[in-house]
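Quick board copy: two proteins, each given as sequence then tokens.
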Amino acid sequence: MAGDEKVQAKVEQAKGKVEETAGKAVGNERLTTQGGADQAKGDARQAKEKIEDALTD
């Protein structure tokens, strides 16, 4: 299960980066903001997984 969460975190981070970059390229502030939010969501998920890993070691 933890592996799936780690993959999901990376997917969210990558998706967010693409959205943010595309939003900046075309001048779409909403898309840029959504991309940043998706990246933050992925970062939070990744941090949670790191904490869980540290606690189970």
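And the next:
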Amino acid sequence: MKRLFPILLSLLSLLPLTTRAVEVEQLYSASIMAVGNQSNRDLQKVAFAQVLVKVSGNANIAADPVIRKALINAREYLVKQAEERIDGERYLQASFNDKKINRLLRSSEFGVWGQNRPQQIVWLVVDEDFNRSVRGETDGDYAKFIDAIKTQANQRAIPVLFPVMDLDDQLQVSSSDLWGQFTDPVELASTRYAADNYIIAKIIKQNDDYKLTWSMYGRSNSNQPFEIWLNGEGQGQLAKIGTALTNSLANHLAERYSVKASGNNEVVFLNVDAVNGITDYAKLIEMFSELSAVAQVELEAVAGSRMQLKLVLLGTQQDLLTELSLDQRIKSSKNAFDDMNFQWNAIN
């Protein structure tokens, strides 16, 4: 079998050996509530724009001239639609063609962000008259902040959750830990929620106004400690500062994980172990075919349960490795000679 390109081997050493990313559902679909007598054609455009934001990760994508033209012809990308009534309001459920959308984004020089996306957890601590407390997902006083983050995270297709703050959480994380940003207990508590990254959000209540400061912690390698990837602050009403936090978070993650076409059509070979039978093989090929960084995948050679795949890349080798690091179906490991191989980890 051909060996992996040396540059790819050197990059593989940066990969985490475990991953907890979430597969986002309905990435190419949207549900839009009609305002007044809005026509289905107008709702299709709104739904299409929302899908383009989710897939590209770019909140301002509709301002691009090529994208504006595509929005006018949203029906050309439509796969199916259905109307429904919820609490007396009319909604349009629309699904769009994923391959056409990916081609549009790449031809417009935007990135394509795949379905596997890192899980975030938000630890919220508030200060009211110098009394500090940790708030969980069901907290009523700060529901507008929590709901705004959940709503906007859904719009941007990023997995975000809040701790339940039951006895286990309370014993592990205190308000002083969060306010002082003592991260060891926060990191430990975040593992319960299978979080790839965590956010410490601190709110000071000032009469009817709120001041927010927050930090996002992430890591590129599971063998390295977490580090601050992003900082932010805001002031105003709870919904406003919650939405702004989520948009900053989504923008950063999209820049990190979306794949832009390199135009090089680079070819790499990957060895994958533990591929047992035709079912595993079919799932393996399907997985690689769905990666944003891969244009084409072919079987190059077979030796027992080991297969070698030939990949033609849309993006870069680092794009490929980043995507693979977010997929639970495949693992990377080193052998006695310090070579890196992949192993298929079939999930039923």
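Board note added afterward: Residues 3-19 have pLDDT under 50 and may be disordered.
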